[in-house]
Write a structure and sequence with these properties.
- The chain has about 180 residues and is mainly β.
- The protein contains no helices and 11 strands.
- Strands 1, 2, 3, 4, 5, 6, 7, 8, 9, 10 and 11 form an 11-stranded antiparallel β-sheet that branches.
- The chain is globular, with a radius of gyration of 21 Å.
- The protein starts with a strand and ends with a strand.
């Protein structure tokens, strides 16, 4: 099943470049179509693949230097068994705008990529364990803030007291690296 849509928005910004001493205002117009796909629109399939693509044409009404074409896309897959569920996702996003962390003021474009894998296994009717991993990488244009890289790992176990309330232990570990902050 495919689904489509379109959004049109206008935005007034009194300080486009986030300047402390010389604010510059701008009025922009954005047109954002959306295309979505799912292999199981009715629900209930053992394997579901979904994808989304969202381009965005942005026009500055005061300064054509700030015109941009941004876009994002993602794909995910969920495989469900009687006791096991495995899901994976990947996404990419390109966004434009002022960067408050930039070395110099300006209008920059950044790209972010993320991927992940999650799994769960039901040990008993009310008890399950899960584990996951995700990673993201962000990169900005020249003269902008330095990009960064994150990795996260998690593992946990849960007991369901009711249909909507469960609790249990969980451990997570994250790493982050950037030329600005180093490794964490």
């Amino acid at each position: 099943g495919f689904a489509t849509g379109i959004g049109i928005s206008s935005n007034y910004d009194s300080n486009v470049l986030l300047s402390e001493s010389d604010p510059e205002s701008d009025l922009s117009l954005s047109v954002t179509p959306t295309v979505r796909y799912t292999s199981d629109p009715e629900g209930g399939a053992k394997m579901v693949v979904s994808a989304t693509y969202v381009p965005s044409a942005n026009a500055s009404l005061n300064n054509s230097e700030y015109n941009s074409f941004d876009q994002s896309g993602s794909v995910s897959m969920i495989i469900s068994g009687s006791r096991t569920t495995i899901s994976a996702f990947a996404g990419i996003s390109q966004d434009s705008g002022a960067d408050s962390l930039a070395k110099s003021q300006g209008f920059f474009t950044g790209t972010s990529v993320s991927i992940g894998l999650q799994g769960s296994y039901q040990l008993a009717p009310r008890t399950s364990v899960n584990a996951g991993w995700s990673s993201s990488l962000t990169d900005y244009g020249d003269g902008s803030a330095v990009g960064f890289n994150d990795n996260s790992f998690n593992i946990g176990g849960f007991w369901a007291a009711t249909e909507r309330f469960s609790f249990g232990p969980g451990l997570s570990y994250s790493t982050s690296s950037s030329d600005n902050t180093g490794d964490t």
